[in-house]
Structure formats: structure tokens, C-alpha cells
Amino acid sequence: MKGIYIHIPFCEQKCFYCDFNSFPSDDYTKKKYMEHLLKEIELNKQMLFNFEGFRNQKKVLDDEKIESIFIGGGTPSIIDEAYITELMNVLKEAFGEYFADDIEITMESNPGTLTYEKLLAYKKAGINRLSIGLQSCVDDELSSLGRIHNYDDFEKNYFLARKAGFDNINIDLMFAIPGQTLDSLNYSLDKVIGLNPEHISAYSLIIEDKTPFGMMYEKGDLKEIDEEIYVKMYRNVVDKLYKNGYRQYEISNYAKKGKMCRHNLMYWRGGDYMAIGLGSSGLINEVRYSNAQSLDKYFSMIDEGKLPIDYRENLSKEDIINEKIILSLRTNMGLDAKELKDVTEFDILLDRKNELENLSSNGYIEIDGDNIRLTQRGREISNSIYVELMVDFDKGSS
Ligand SMILES: C[S@@+](CC[C@H](N)C(=O)[O-])C[C@H]1O[C@@H](n2cnc3c(N)ncnc32)[C@H](O)[C@@H]1O
Ligand code: SF4
């Protein structure tokens, strides 16, 4: 197994665009949740690898070291730092013998929730990579997104994190925010680049159903940014970050040399990872699974001594091929056609010869021996490229 994902679902308030499984909560529920999370880790240790729902009962942990742990959310930095210390202790107790020597342990955080004491406690607990959700350096844009902080709050927290010894920091940015201009995006990019973080994630805003933004959009009170401006913004992000030493290694992710996020890489390469916490999803031995989405169900399953898994699916050969195509093409390393053929027997170079030739002659992909990569133009229409290359055995498309 390559990684562990741990979900902390609490946030101070819900941002207007966010459909992650996260919500505000009281201290009692947070305490109860953390107690259950620790029990879930124990249950995973005892049960996961004998669990009848997982086929190919090979000993997952003996095969590979755990290279990455990602504590995400929600806002893990909202809870008392003692919970994070305890979480890390229990994890080390349960799985420490399988940790790679240079394991990367990331925690997500929200500006305005960090203090120097918290940051020192995280560092001491073994967290060696901090991800801070900033989104924008323009205060009006932050309040239009429903964020709880302004730019200054972020900057203070960023410098405190450096002072506490964090030498691997990611900053999340967003573009295509309603009302954002190319100039204001550039202002945010320049400010963030000036801080010299090791990694920047720049996501284009997705207007999700059932969020306040989704509802405003349905009523016609919120407009998506114009397609032409969107493309300009995206190209601008890629170019500016490139010129400043950040290599794009996936559609939304940029890193300095050697600082790509291990959790991301593992996920895009289809590596096995264990899911812990409310609603989180994992992949082990070609079985994709998710935990209960509601707190009541999550608590009661753990109280009954069961893993809180309420969905599992044995991936079909078709699923495995399609996931490999999509996830690899998202990255700049691209798709290794030979590896795909070795693992799945699907020869994309032969079976999709015409599609690949068309995409290549139109400048959307580059083919170099067994390696297939999206070009910058290709990234702008990535979804339609995936559809062209994916297989559907029912329809006889392979
Ligand atoms: C789960 S959040 C964790 C960080 C922390 N809770 C925060 O918001 O500061 C991870 C990131 O996902 C991105 N994100 C969430 N919803 C999004 C959406 N609808 N469109 C684009 N990006 C989104 C934001 O950039 C956010 O920082
Ligand atoms: S703080 Fe992060 S997880 Fe929470 S609602 Fe906002 S974007 Fe979502």
C-alpha cells in the first residue's frame, strides 16, 4: 500500500462553492469524532486485510512501504492540536513499521485557524508538509467566496509556519472566481510567488450543485466566467508559474523541483491507499471503497466494532483501463502505453491508433514511443480527449 488518507470534516463555516463533506460543528461532536477516528485506525489494523470484501488477499502492507499520509478535510487545523498529536501517535503505533523512511505527511489548513503553538505541535507530531487554502489575495474575492479570513490572516499564518520549521508548503489558489479579472488573478499569483512556497495548486472554480453558488447559478444570479477569459486565465497561470520555477505536473498542480505532492502522485498512478474518516474513499487491491457519509452511520458502525465502509466495488477491467488513462493523462508524465498493456492487456497504441493520430496531428497530444502526453492545448479540452480514448466493452469500442 502506498498511502493513507484521513478525513477531518469540520470547518468554521461553509464556503459558498464547496461541496466537500465538511461542516461546522460543536466541541462535543469533534471530540466524539476524533475518538471514533482512532478506533477506526485500530479496526483497520485488525480487520482490513482479512476483510472479505477485498479480493486478492495479498498482504498489502508487506509489499510496499507507506510513502504518504494526507490529513485532509474539511479543515484539520480547526480542531485542538492535541487531537492531531494523538492521531499521529495512534497511526505510528498501528502502521509505523510500514512507514517509508522519508514518508511525506501532509495536513490541510485554513488561514485564520493556525497559531504558532499549533504549528509547533504539528511539526513535533511528524507532519512535514503543510497545505494552506488561500484561494485569492484580494479580500473582496475572499469574502465573495464565503472565506473566513482575509489576505493578512493568511500571510501571518504563512510566516508562522516557516518560523515553526515547515520547509514544504503548498498554497491553494483559485481562478475563474466570479468577478475576478486577469489583472486581479495576476496580482494574486505575483503575491503568492513572492512568498516562494514549494508547491502551488491552482484550481478553476467549479460551480457545484446544491452549494450556495450552485443555487445562485440556477436562479441566474451567478454567471460562469466567459470561456475565452477562462482559457486566458489558465494559460496565464501556467506561464507565470513556469517562468517562476514552478513546473506543472498535473492540470491544477505546480511544484518546484522535487516537491511534487506524493499523495497526488500516488493517486494519479493508481496506487493503493487506505481511507480513514467520514465519507473518505480508498483503493486497495483493485477494490474501490468509501466510508459512511453521515456521522450517525459512521459512529454506529464503529460502535458495533465494524469498519464504517458502506460502499465497495470490485473494479472491472474496463474501469481499471479507463482510470489509468484518465489519471495518467492528467499528469505531465503522461500515460505509459506499455505499462497499460502489461497490466491490462489493452494496447492503446493499436486499439486507438486512428484517434491518437488525429489528436496528435491536431496538436492535442504528443506521442513519444510508448509515452502519450497531453499538450497545453490538449489540457484545455482534456475531458473530450479522455472520452475518445476510453473503452466501453459493452458497446464494443475495443
Ligand atoms: C478541502 S479544501 C481544504 C483546505 C481548507 N479547508 C481551505 O479551504 O482552506 C481543498 C481545496 O479545494 C479547493 N476547492 C474546493 N471546492 C472547490 C470548487 N468548487 N472549485 C474549485 N476548487 C475547489 C480549494 O482551493 C480548497 O483550498
Ligand atoms: S474551508 Fe475548505 S473544506 Fe471547508 S467549506 Fe471552505 S473550501 Fe470547503
For the termini, the CA-CA separation is 31 Å
Give the strand order of the largest sheet, numbering strands 1, 2, ... along the chain. Answer: 7-8-6-5-4-3-2-1-9
Q: Treating each run of at least 4 consecutive H or I residues as one helix, how many helices?
A: 17
Number of strands: 15
Low-pLDDT stretches: none
Instruction: Choose one word for the global shape.
Output: globular
Helix fraction?
A: 40-55%
Roughly what is the average pLDDT, rounded to an integer?
93
The fourth-level CATH homologous superfamily of the largest domain is Aldolase class I
Alpha carbon gyration radius: 21 Å
Q: What is the fold named in CATH at topology level of the largest domain?
A: TIM Barrel
Bound molecules: S-adenosylmethionine, iron/sulfur cluster
Indicate how many domains the architecture comprises.
2
Q: Output the structural class.
A: alpha/beta
Beta-strand level of the residues, as a percent range?
A: 15-25%
Sheet with the most strands?
9 strands, mixed
* Overall CATH architecture of the largest domain: Alpha-Beta Barrel
Just give the CATH class of the largest domain: Alpha Beta
Task: Give a written overview of the molecule.
The two termini are 31 Å apart. The protein is globular and about 60 Å long. The strands form 3 sheets. Strands 7-8-6-5-4-3-2-1-9 form a 9-stranded mixed β-sheet, sandwiched between helices. It has 17 helices and 15 strands. The protein has 2 domains: 3-267, Aldolase class I (TIM Barrel, Alpha-Beta Barrel); 317-395, Orthogonal Bundle (Arc Repressor Mutant, subunit A). It is 43% helix and 20% strand. The mean pLDDT is 93. With 398 residues, the chain is an alpha/beta fold. Bound molecules: S-adenosylmethionine and iron/sulfur cluster.
